[in-house]
Amino acid sequence: MTIKEVSEKYDLSADTIRYYERIGLIPHVPRKENGIRDFDEASCGWVEFSKCMRSAGVQVEALIEYVDLFFQEGTEEARKDILVEQRARLQEQYEQLKATMERLDYKIAHYVP
Amino acid sequence: MTIKEVSEKYDLSADTIRYYERIGLIPHVPRKENGIRDFDEASCGWVEFSKCMRSAGVQVEALIEYVDLFFQEGTEEARKDILVEQRARLQEQYEQLKATMERLDYKIAHYVP
DNA sequence: TTAGCATTTGGAGTGGACTCGAAGTCAAGC
DNA sequence: GCTTGACTTCGAGTCCACTCCAAATGCTAA
Questions:
Q1: Per residue, what are the HEC states of chain A?
Q2: What average pLDDT does this structure show over A32-50?
Q3: At A82, which CATH number?
Q4: What 8-state DSSP symbol labels residue B29?
Q5: pLDDT tens, residue by residue, B67-93
Q6: Across the interface, do A57 and B94 touch by the CB < 8 Å criterion?
Q7: Nearest one of A22, A13, A16, A10 to A48, comparing CA atoms
Q8: Which of B91, B67, B13, B27 is nearest to A94 (CA)?
Q9: What whole-number percentage of chain A has pLDDT above 90?
Q10: How far apart are the first and last CA of chain A?
């Protein structure tokens, strides 16, 4: 698949996908002989994963570290730790979000500022 | 209350509070004769409100508009609309967050990348 | 009354995450 | 053979939301 197809498939700009590869947020994408990216299933999987994580607010830094560890042997625990930590972060955001939504609901329902 | 006290009370830097006032995210804070901010209950309320909204991810822009309308007569509906729209945005974030957390839970539980 | 610390303003600087631009290559169609 | 449009790299630019700085003023305590 070309970058354009992947970009449309996951609704991420081609620039963003190139940027993600450049900074190591997704692993190197295979190229054709002419140097053009040719996304295979694994690469698509990474794009999809990064999109999902990013849109929930997982930091770029954490994802880079994860991808980095992914290519080293015996780092399963470390990788899992990253996931656990990010999971905890999301949990916090979740609580905050819930509280704020309830507050907004109340404000909207009783609207008199 | 001084800005320092408010800053400690709500765990927001004094710089951020001044910034919020400057851009209109909170209304003008009353001053003493010497020009120093003297937060009353209303001002504290705005600080607390903005902190809550911001930490859930409500955009600065929307809050500025809200505060702006707040000081004009007959804008109740418009203000409520802002709240309703922001509520919907948070709802989307919430869904995204939930989905991502579930995905992480699964990945963590079955850890074999 | 002088030191030392908080506060004021306005403007400049920062960090994160993209987003764009320039200059070049390549394949397909006319 | 030439144009057109998608692709490449790499560096620069942008946007948002702060965060910091400088210079001036004010309050408190030795």
A1: CCHHHHHHHHCCCHHHHHHHHHHCCCCCCCECCCCCECCCHHHHHHHHHHHHHHHCCCCHHHHHHHHHHHCCCCCHHHHHHHHHHHHHHHHHHHHHHHHHHHHHHHHHHCCCC
A2: 95
A3: 1.10.1660.10
A4: P
A5: 999 999 999 999 999 999 999 999 999
A6: no
A7: A10
A8: B91
A9: 95
A10: 53
> Which two tokens mark A90?
């999301």
Which nucleotide's C1' is closest to A35 (Cα)?
D8
Does the CB of B55 have a partner CB in chain A at under 8 Å?
A: yes
Rounded Cα distance between B26 and B103, Å, is 38
| Residue given tokens 């990348």 in the structure block | B113
Contact B67, B25 (CB under 8 A): yes
What's the average model confidence in pLDDT over A53-72? Answer: 96
How far apart, in whole angstroms, are the C-alpha atoms of residue B90 and residue B57?
A: 8
The confidence score (pLDDT) of residue B100 equals 98
Chain B residues with CB-CB distance to A94 below 8 A: 94, 97-98, 101
- Does any CB of chain B come closer than 8 Å to the CB of residue A78? no
Closest by CA to A84, choosing from B106, B36, B86, is: B106
Domains held by chain A: number: 1
- Check CB contact under 8 Å for B52 and A100: yes
Q: Find the domain containing A54 and state its range.
A: 3-109
Q: Is B59 on the interface with A (CB under 8 A)?
A: no
Task: Quickly list H helices, chain B.
Answer: 3-10, 14-23, 41-55, 60-70, 76-109
